[in-house]
Amino acid sequence: MERVRAISGRWASRLFEALITLWLLATLCFVLLRAAPGGPFDSEKAAPPEVQAALATQYRLDRPLLAQYGAWLGDVARGDLGPSFQYPDYSVNQLVASALPVSALNGGLALLLALAFGIPLGIRSALHAGRWLDRGLMFVAGLGLAVPKFVAAPLLVLLFAVTLHWLPAGGWGEWKNVVLPVVALALPNLAYCARLTRASMLETLSADYLRAARARGLSEARLLFAHALKPALLPVVAWLSPALINVVTGSAVVEQVFGIPGMGRYFVQGALNRDYTLVLGVVLVVGALIVLINTLVDAVRGWLDPRLDAAD
C-alpha cells in the first residue's frame, strides 16, 4: 500500500510539474509574440479603417494585452486553441489535427530509423574497437553529425530526385514522399545514436562483473545480449528526449524544403505572418508531446534499471 501511495504521489507531482511547464511555455511564447514588431493584419493596410477595426474586434486584438491573455488562456483550458489569423476558414484545432499525424509519422519513422541502424552500428563498432571498421563507422558518423539538416535535405533532393529520379522532390500523399524527409531527419540522430551506443557499450564491456562472467566461460554472444546490452542502452534511452526535441526543431526546416503540411511548416508560416493563435497552438501541442515523451522515457529507464525508481 505504501508503494502504491509513493507511486501515485510521484505521478501526481509529475503531472503538476508538466502543467506548470506548459503554462510557463505558453505564457513566454504569448509575451514574445506580442513583443515582436508587426501584426497579423499589417498586409491589410489598404483596407478601410472600419474593416481594420472589425478584424481587431473579431480576433479580440482591440482588448488590453492582459485581457487578451486571460481570454486565450480560458479558451485553451476548454480545449479551444482559437481561430487562425492566416487561415480564416479553419480553426487552430483543425490545422493541428491535420498536421500532427504528418509530423508524427515523419518524426516517429526518423527516430525508429535512427535507433534501428544506430544501435547495431554502435555495437558493431564497439566490438571492433580500434580496427578499421570502427574507424570507418565513426568517421561516417562524424560526417552525419557535421552536416546540418538544411544542407542534408537539399543534397538528398539533388541526388535522389534531380539526378537519379528515384524519388519525388516534395509533396505528400504517397509512400515515396516519406522517404527523403525521414532520411533527412534521421541522419544526425542516427550518427549520434551510433557514437553514444559505442561509448556506452565499451564502458559496459570493461565492467568487472562482465570480466568475471567471461572468466566463467560464458560465450561472447551471451555476455553481449544477456548481460551487457541492457545497461549499455540506458544512455541511449535517456538520449531519446533530446532526440525528440532535435526531430521537432528539425522538422520545421525539412517540412519547408519538401513542402510537407506538418506542424513545423505551420509554425514557420505562422511566425512569419504573426498568426498568434496558430504559433501558440503548435507550441502547446509540441510541448505537451515532449512532456509525454519525457515521462515515457523515464518509465523505460526505470524498467531497464529499477535503481532509478528507487532513487526517486
From TrEMBL:
It is found in: Cell membrane. The keyword Transport applies. CDD domains: TM_PBP2. Its main location: membrane. Residues 100-301 form the ABC transmembrane type-1 domain. It comes from the Bacteria. Belongs to the binding-protein-dependent transport system permease family. OppBC subfamily. This is Oligopeptide transport system permease protein. The lineage of its organism: Bacteria, Pseudomonadati, Pseudomonadota, Gammaproteobacteria, Lysobacterales.
